[in-house]
Specification:
Blueprint lengths: L1 H6 L4 H15 L5 H21 L5 H9 L11 H25 L6 H21 L5 H21 L5 H30 L1
Helix pairs in contact: 2-3, 3-5, 3-6, 3-7, 6-7, 6-8
Length: 191
């Protein structure tokens, strides 16, 4: 597991490129709504690439700047980062896209909301700490693509208002859980 903790994020760019090539070939014309849900996954992988690879350094940034720790890999470490990102992005995003295409399209809308909400947290951090790893993809991809998806679904009546609200609530709850973990579990460890 130690190898995975230190290397999981190296796959992000390869999976994102693969999805960016494959998605238009199979879904762009046949099922645009499902394409948009899958696109959330590809965009979020690019977001993680910026956070962890180029320029990378999100764990160090979050520890030093946000949590005000003098240690680069504490209290947020590679293990915690893995267990935050893998279940949400590598499992829940594609699983939601699969279920959206097989069962009900509304199952996937939460990914757009979560992408927007998480991206907004990077924008907020920018005002206090300036650049933070993940900021540019948040600003130029996560927010616009997520917002477009939400409005496209609404404009075309693809899902109900209740389904939109449920998706929004799920996105908010997941982001809240991540923030609670950061500020209620990790932050006290700095003291």
């Amino acid at each position: 597991m130690k190898w995975l903790y230190k290397n999981w994020y190296k796959s992000t760019i390869f999976i994102a490129i693969y999805l960016i090539i494959i998605l238009p070939l199979y879904l762009l014309k046949s099922d645009y709504a499902v394409f948009l849900i899958w696109l959330q996954f590809a965009v979020y992988l690019l977001h993680q690439f910026e956070e962890y690879i180029l320029p990378g350094g999100f764990v160090k940034f979050f520890n030093n700047k946000v949590l005000q720790s003098d240690k680069d890999n504490y209290p947020l470490d590679d293990r915690a980062s893995f267990w935050i990102n893998i279940p949400i992005i590598f499992i829940a995003f594609p699983l939601s896209a699969i279920l959206a295409s097989c069962i009900d399209i509304s199952i996937g809308i939460w990914t757009a909301y979560f992408s927007i909400i998480n991206a907004l947290s990077h924008v907020v951090m920018f005002f206090k700490h300036r650049y933070n790893p993940g900021f540019f993809v948040s600003l130029f991809l996560n927010i616009p693509v997520g917002t477009y998806t939400v409005f496209y679904f609404d404009d075309h009546g693809i899902i109900s208002t209740n389904a939109q609200l449920i998706g929004l609530m799920i996105g908010v709850l997941i982001q809240a859980a991540v923030m609670i973990y950061g500020f209620k579990v990790l932050k006290p460890k700095v003291k």
